[in-house]
UniProtKB/TrEMBL annotation:
The keyword Repressor does not apply. It comes from the Bacteria. One of its GO terms (molecular function) is oxidoreductase activity, acting on the CH-OH group of donors, NAD or NADP as acceptor. Belongs to the short-chain dehydrogenases/reductases (SDR) family. NCBIfam families: PRK06057.1, PRK07231.1. Keywords: Oxidoreductase. It holds the Pfam family adh_short_C2. This is Short-chain dehydrogenase.
Length: 263
């Protein structure tokens, strides 16, 4: 059973305002739905206008078109959230890319390296920098930055800039969590294992051997559903996780704990 099978009755986020980047798709979209269902005002930020708008409409939230690599647009995003709802309580800095030209270090060019660093790592720096002053004034806030299990585990199927960017997100989140803890602000890195998204489905439908090579490492024997990642974000966003800070919060089905998995 996954969280998608259960009726969500938690209302832990009533009156809180959440900014979600990459809210138009995948983990961001599932999280927009989940945080809205828990009572939060949700600001859906995405570079994809159609997807972001649709997400905001569905959850009764606000769409803001943002390229997370732009300092001005990121500043404006958090200002809009504050001006509209009066607070910025939750920042889920989640937008990210994993393009095919980011591959082995031997074949990945500097342009691809920099593009991935910009979207996956510099964006998190910009979002945290923009969100923190609002949270400092409130004396309250929860920042969740999407890293990945590849921040703590190596893969022979390398995406070198992606992996390095997620390691950066993890280290930055830890440091911010320590620096701002006594101001009532928690910062955690979320480290999902592989998630059953359309991209992954397409890739593995074409190449079942590629899927099998990965699934053998997951004790649960399947990929995560986006709703299962969203449930973890809702927990980290809520006061139920009030003593969880500066962590690498793994939601990986046990991959990182496994040696031999069940047959
Ligand atoms: N899917 C997985 O298996 C998996 C596993 C671990 C970590 N992650 C991480 O989770 C996050 C979300 O992944 P997903 O699978 O839901 O991806 P996705 O591709 O389904 O969604 C990402 C969203 O980010 C948006 N986006 C991309 N570039 C942007 C930019 N410059 N500015 C604003 N928005 C932008 C896209 O338009 C899209 O809506 C990413 O950081 C990813 O690295 C994913």
């Amino acid at each position: 059973m996954t969280t998608s099978d259960t009726e969500i009755v938690c209302r832990r986020l009533v009156g809180r305002t959440a900014v979600i980047t990459g809210a138009g798709s995948g983990i961001g979209l599932a999280t927009a739905r989940r945080l809205a269902s828990e009572g939060a005002n949700v600001v859906c930020a995405d570079i994809d206008e159609n997807a972001g708008k649709a997400a905001a409409e569905e959850v009764g939230g606000l769409f803001v078109k943002v390229d997370v690599t732009s300092p001005e647009e990121v500043e404006a995003l958090f200002k809009t959230a504050f001006d509209t709802y009066g607070s910025v309580d939750i920042a889920f800095n989640n937008a990210g890319i994993s393009p095919p030209d980011d591959d082995s270090i031997l074949t990945t060019g500097l342009e691809a390296w920099k593009r991935v660093q910009d979207v996956n790592l510099t964006s998190v720096y910009l979002c945290c920098k923009a969100a923190l002053p609002y949270m400092q004034r409130q004396g309250r806030g929860s920042i969740i930055n999407t890293a990945s299990f590849v921040a703590i585990m190596g893969a022979a199927t390398s995406q070198i800039s992606y992996t390095a960017s997620k390691g950066g997100v993890l280290a930055m989140s830890r440091e911010l969590g320590v620096q701002f803890a006594r101001e009532g602000i928690r910062v955690n890195a979320l480290c999902p294992g592989p998630v059953n998204t359309p991209l992954l489905q397409e890739l593995f439908a074409k190449d079942p051997e590629r899927a099998a090579r990965r699934l053998v490492h997951i004790p649960l024997g399947r990929f995560a559903e986006p709703t299962e990642i969203a449930a973890a974000v809702a927990f980290l966003a809520s006061d139920d996780s009030s003593f969880i800070n500066a962590t690498d919060f793994l939601v990986d089905g046990g991959i990182s704990g496994a040696y031999v998995t069940p047959l």
